[in-house]
């Protein structure tokens, strides 16, 4: 089942301003930024025109303001990129991708019960700066987020001011709505840098299992690289959580793969019905599945030719990281790998992968914390388009 939305659709301006004022109390350097933004909002006809006029376009300055607002917090994680040396020359048009479950605000404060995390570290007045700081530190060209419940009042306007276009798909029955004082449903959001890519097509998908709609969603977007003219299909998703639902995650993964295959066939140049396409795929998500689960095997064995980028961090190139999430709940400690960046291994090359913070950096109370705003760690990879190999005997 497809749900198609315009990537430029937004809530009415009046509602935007009211929500913005109620959920964004700020101080320090960020007050100037948001104060100017809300002042302009009150006299403009659309959010999009406001952001274009406001031109909050300096990520370095915004990063400085975030750091100023966070004050004397503990040092942020020091993470390095591991560069993959496969003998090829430097990429001509690198693609930096970030995958991150940012932790829905309503769930962090209301339902997730992080027993070792101080309540002050979970406040939105603090977490929003940490989230923006993480994004601005790595400056991805494509940003895939899950558990987004502050899209319209924070992430969309701020990132639009930095040149990102985006699409958001909320869960039909978001658990955030069960939390008093919630900011609306959580969902998946996909952002892309408009200076690097132009929009071609988009679909918001409600994932199904055996033809029955579920509560999980995906955003699928077709983009065209402005420098190379090549198309790229990107998807972000968040599959069903918790043990006992492995069969449902597997069915949801199969449904997403089917949608992806349909979209790349629609825009590709290959023969109709061909299992593969010349359009590269990037699939980011919190799969809520460890690497031994069936949904992981389905993606590995898919005729779309997908591989998991974070395996490149391992010595043998075939093992996922030990963890992408590490938290302590009343039921105990959870340290495992649930998040992935899948890519078309025949058409994309992995050039660099951001490593994981150490156990010492994360600390004994685990995540989230005063240092880090989510129980999931961000994944960041640099990709580039592979050049097509010429057929034997063809003139170079």
From TrEMBL:
* An annotated GO BP: circadian rhythm
Q: Where is the Endonuclease/exonuclease/phosphatase domain?
A: 98-376
Keywords for the protein's UniProt record, in alphabetical order: Biological rhythms, Cytoplasm, Hydrolase, Magnesium, Metal-binding
Gene3D superfamilies found in the cross-reference section: Endonuclease/exonuclease/phosphatase (3.60.10.10)
Query: What is the required cofactor set for this protein?
Result: Mg(2+)
Q: Name one Pfam family in it.
A: Exo_endo_phos
Q: Which InterPro entries match?
A: CCR4/nocturin_mRNA_transcr, Deadenylase_nocturnin, Endo/exonu/phosph_ase_sf, Endo/exonuclease/phosphatase
GO MF annotation terms: metal ion binding; poly(A)-specific ribonuclease activity
Name the coiled-coil region(s): none
Q: Name one GO cellular component term.
A: cytoplasm
Q: Where in the cell is it found?
A: Cytoplasm
Tell me its family.
Answer: Belongs to the CCR4/nocturin family.
- Its recorded name reads Nocturnin
């Amino acid at each position: 089942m497809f749900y198609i939305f315009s990537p430029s659709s937004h809530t009415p301006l009046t509602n935007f301003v009211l929500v913005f004022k109620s959920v964004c109390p700020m101080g320090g350097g960020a007050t100037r930024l948001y104060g100017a933004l809300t002042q302009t909002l009150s006299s403009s006809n659309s959010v999009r025109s406001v952001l274009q006029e406001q031109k909050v376009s300096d990520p370095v300055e915004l990063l400085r303001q975030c750091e100023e607002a966070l004050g004397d917090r503990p040092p942020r994680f020091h993470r390095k990129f591991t560069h993959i040396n496969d003998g090829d020359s430097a990429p001509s048009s690198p693609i930096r991708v970030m995958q991150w479950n940012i932790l829905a605000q309503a769930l962090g404060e209301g339902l997730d019960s992080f027993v070792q995390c101080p309540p002050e570290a979970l406040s939105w007045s603090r977490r929003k700066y940490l989230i923006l700081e993480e994004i601005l530190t790595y400056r991805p060209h494509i940003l895939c987020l899950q558990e987004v419940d502050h899209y319209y009042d924070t992430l969309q306007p701020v990132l639009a001011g930095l040149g990102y276009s985006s699409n958001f798909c909320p869960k039909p029955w978001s658990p955030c709505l069960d939390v008093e004082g919630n900011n609306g449903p959580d969902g998946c959001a996909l952002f892309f840098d408009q200076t690097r890519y132009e929009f071609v097509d988009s679909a918001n998908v409600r994932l199904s299992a055996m033809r029955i709609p579920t509560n999980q969603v995906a955003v699928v977007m077709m983009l065209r690289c402005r420098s190379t003219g090549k198309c790229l299909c990107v998807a972000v998703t968040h599959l069903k959580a918790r043990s006992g639902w492995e069969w449902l995650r597997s069915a949801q993964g199969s449904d997403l793969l089917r949608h992806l295959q349909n979209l790349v066939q629609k825009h590709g140049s290959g023969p109709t019905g061909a299992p593969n396409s010349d359009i590269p795929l990037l699939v980011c998500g919190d799969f809520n599945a460890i690497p031994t689960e069936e949904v992981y095997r389905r993606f590995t064995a898919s005729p779309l030719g997908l591989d998991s980028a974070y395996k490149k961090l391992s010595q043998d190139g075939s093992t996922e990281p030990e963890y992408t999430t590490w938290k302590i709940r009343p039921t105990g400690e959870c340290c495992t790998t649930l998040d992935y960046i899948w890519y078309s291994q025949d058409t994309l090359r992995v050039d660099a992968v951001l490593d994981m913070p150490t156990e010492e950096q994360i600390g004994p109370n685990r995540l989230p914390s005063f240092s880090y705003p989510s129980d999931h760690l961000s994944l960041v990879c640099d990709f580039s388009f592979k050049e097509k190999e010429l057929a034997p005997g063809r003139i170079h």
